Amino acid sequence: WIMSLTEPIIEVASRAFSWKDFILLGGGLFLIAKATREIHDKVEGDKHIPGETKESAKGKLGMVIVQIMILDIVFSLD
Question: In Å, how far are 28, 54, 64 from 42, measured between CA atoms?
């Protein structure tokens, strides 16, 4: 369904853009931001937070699952 959104919605510098273009652009920007964050974490090293509890770790697990879902959607559209 998303890949069929090819009808132009805006034109910039004689180039037409559709919803599909914006979705793919957003996915590409997400991948660049995610890769930059991962490289930064590898260079700087892990930071241990002294007061971290199991509840905060559960919240991080939820964010990991959301990021995996977003990456799956981006790669399936690309």
Answer: 21, 24, 17
